[in-house]
Amino acid sequence: MARQTSGVTLQQLYYFIEVAAEGSITAAAEILFVAQPTMSAAMKDLETRVGRSLLLRSARGVSLTTDGAEFLGYARQVVEQVALLEQRYLGRPPLRRLLGVSTQHYSFAVDAFVRMVRGTEASEYEFSLRETRTWDIIEDVRTLRSELGILYRNDFNRNVIDKLLRDSGLIFRPLFLAEPHIFISRKNPLAKKRRATLADLADLPRLTFDQGNNNSFYFAEEILSTLSSKREIRVSDRATIFNLMIGLNGYTISTGIISDDLDPEIVAVPLDVDEQIEIGWIGHSAIPLTEQGQRYLSEVRAVVADFGVELVG
User: How far apart are CA 220 and CA 104, in angstroms?
Assistant: First the structure.
């Protein structure tokens, strides 16, 4: 079988996908054990064949043009289908680079990731899961470090988030609506209440995820971020925030979806406020998801449905 489609070779598609993932022709060449001049020439020839500029080159590396981002989506589909064909009929192993996900600090996102990895038939794989800051999630997806991102929006941050996504060539697609809950230790006296109020929280340490240089209220992971708090602690990871819930009787506000398997010492109590949290995934508007990306989102929906939350996407 000749590895060529419409004048573009499969090898060029493999090269282009790796260059896009690494943001560097040199780095992609090293990973694929190809001479840098050969890789560079292959990318120039690819652009000549398709008649469009696909890469923006600079001293810091390369980034995709608008045409390049769209072309990447089709390139991934072609390579993915060829890989499936070769697995079925030639006994070839599946591709190692399968999926990258960036997410705010949600246990359901991790739970779904665990299910996805357990369900993979690949004997070898390369997945990545980054729990990180809101701004970095958007940057990860914009630069294709991750195929998709998981984050929330509500009436307060919607306009800011949506504008930033539009400017980055990304789109937000809703997954579900959640009622706000507080996450607290099982030993916290509030754990026995059917619902908590803002007054109940007045003297407890409020725990929030640090957003680095972008600590704007609009990028906070927690709703009601503009409300003042007498005691506030910013943290950078879920393990720390859970330890502080237990050690200091602190709280954070989130979706109410929490895995007993992953977080057995933490409980969710409904918060009595007139708010909703819209959770969704972000991706490039011009790039369709890979099959593995679709599988991950299916697992997210399955995890959420297990909690009785109504899906909207």
Answer: 10
Q: CB under 8 Å to 68, separation ≥6 — which residues?
A: 20, 52, 53, 54, 55, 56
* Cα–Cα distance for residue pair 16/76, rounded to 1 Å: 10
DSSP state of 168: T
Each residue of 255-309: pLDDT tens digit?
A: 989 877 757 889 999 999 998 999 999 998 878 888 889 999 999 999 999 888 8
Whether 48 and 113 map to the same domain: the answer is no
Burial of 272 (0-12, 13-18, 19+ CB in 10 A): middle
Closest CA to 303 of 255, 271, 265, 267: 255
Would the CA dihedral through 303, 306, 309, 310 be positive or negative?
Answer: positive
- Rounded CA-CA distance 300/305 in Å is 9
How far are the Cα atoms of 3, 142, 151, 171, 284 from residue 167, in angstroms, in the given order?
36, 10, 17, 10, 11
Q: What is the C-alpha to C-alpha distance for residues 233 and 147, in angstroms, rounded to an integer? A: 31
Last residue of a domain, one of 55, 74, 90: 90
**Using one digit for the tens of pLDDT, what is the confidence trace for 60-83?**
889 888 888 888 888 887 887 787
Instruction: Name the pTM for this structure.
Output: 0.76
174: β partners = 280
Same domain, 217 and 242: yes
CA distance 295 to 148: 12
Q: Where are the alpha helices (DSSP H) in the chain?
A: 10-22, 25-31, 36-50, 66-90, 107-119, 134-142, 158-167, 238-248, 291-306
Structural domain including 55 reads 4-90
* Count: domains in the chain: 2
